[in-house]
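Example for tutorial group B:
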């Protein structure tokens, strides 16, 4: 079981650094084509330019040749803000040299992890560099997404978009990870990307059950996602008490504690008064349900130290956060905390943003520094903290 040690882990850690002859510079589409085109295939450069990665501080980490001019190796690296990892999108040229330079750069920044998207990285190449292959995510486009796209017409697609339903999970088929600190002690959970804009709470609960070995990969599908959401929703969001009650009803043997440091209705700041009123009634009904079922609601402020303690007991913490820091917009969102490493908590985020180059590889096994997670999990105008702690049972 990993103990909490005060090893400093900074935010995304991407900064200028030219030590050991390695070039680290902001990625500017078009400006570095002359240097990159000598070693990077055209389709790789096209992928690098296809998304607006500016929110994730894209950098080129390059290794100059012996004459100090032309690059012999390079990698495009990015990371979500306020996190403790670095992601290689692709490595080109002398790939082992490029990856070695990225890993050294990440170590120098005190980061916990390096990931590598599997667009061009083979399992053998990644393993030779010390990386472990990530399990392929559940719910890929070959399942619900592809079937839906093949069978729907324009009117069905428009209706789906109006309902806020998401797109099939985007990103590479494979990915790889290298931990630069102690790895979390337990095997990783499967990754599942939410299939709507509002089912994140349900997905995090299912992730916790799957990680605990109580839900098979075959059972973890879109029907399970939408069924649990329907039981937990406050239309359309899942608030902490409703989510905790739904978890208890579905899995009575799993110990559940709800943490919510306010007795007022939550996640209603963005709504007009007439829309708030009836949702507040439902939230009061959820509190009554929790009382009848014997699900405790702890009104104290849940600390990061308490979250760490729960994770080190191998419980799971479904944590309500704001996406403002990691994605740039103020939206309440559920993530599943399932492990710890020195200085950071490891989460599963069921949502990614392909428009910014953000994929499931970013969202899976995502280390977030303690201080960053503390800030993210103060939600709404009042900075409320809400969580559901699920014991293994």
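The residue assignment follows.
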């Amino acid at each position: 079981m990993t103990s909490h040690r005060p090893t400093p882990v900074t935010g995304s850690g991407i900064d200028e650094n030219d030590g050991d002859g390695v070039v680290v510079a902001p990625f500017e589409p078009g400006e570095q084509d002359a240097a990159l085109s000598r070693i990077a295939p055209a389709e790789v450069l096209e992928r690098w330019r296809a998304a607006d990665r500016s929110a994730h501080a894209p950098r080129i980490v390059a290794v100059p040749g012996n004459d100090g001019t032309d690059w012999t190796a390079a990698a495009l690296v990015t990371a979500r803000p306020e996190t403790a990892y670095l992601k290689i999108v692709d490595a080109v040229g002398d790939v082992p040299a490029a990856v070695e330079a990225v890993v050294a750069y990440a170590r120098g920044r005190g980061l916990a992890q390096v990931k590598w998207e599997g667009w061009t990285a083979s399992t053998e190449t990644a393993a030779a560099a010390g990386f472990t292959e990530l399990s392929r995510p559940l719910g890929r486009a070959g399942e619900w997404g592809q079937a839906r796209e093949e069978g729907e017409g324009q009117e069905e697609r428009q209706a789906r978009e109006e309902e806020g339903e998401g797109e099939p999970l985007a990103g590479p088929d494979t990915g790889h990870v290298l931990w630069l600190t102690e790895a979390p002690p337990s095997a990783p959970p499967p990754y599942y990307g939410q299939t709507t804009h509002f089912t994140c709470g349900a997905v995090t609960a299912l992730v916790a059950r799957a990680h605990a070995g109580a839900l098979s990969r075959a059972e973890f599908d879109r029907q399970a996602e939408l069924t649990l959401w329907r039981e937990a929703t406050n239309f359309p969001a899942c608030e902490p008490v409703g989510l905790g009650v739904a978890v208890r009803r579905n899995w009575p043997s799993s110990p559940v504690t709800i943490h919510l440091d306010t007795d007022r209705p939550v996640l209603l700041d963005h709504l007009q008064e007439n829309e708030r009123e009836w949702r507040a009634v439902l939230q009061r009904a959820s509190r009554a349900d929790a009382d009848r079922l014997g699900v405790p609601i702890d009104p104290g402020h849940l600390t990061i130290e308490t979250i760490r303690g729960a994770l080190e007991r191998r419980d799971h913490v479904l944590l309500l956060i704001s996406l403002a820091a990691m994605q740039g917009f103020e939206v309440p969102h559920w993530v599943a905390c399932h492990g710890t490493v020195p200085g950071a908590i490891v989460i599963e985020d069921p949502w990614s943003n392909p428009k910014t180059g953000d994929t499931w590889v970013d969202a899976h096994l995502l280390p977030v520094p303690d201080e960053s997670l503390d800030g993210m999990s103060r939600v709404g105008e009042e900075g409320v903290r809400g969580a559901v702690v699920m014991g293994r049972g």
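The chain has two domains: 19-133, 188-390. Compare this with the pattern of hydrophobic and polar residues in the output above.
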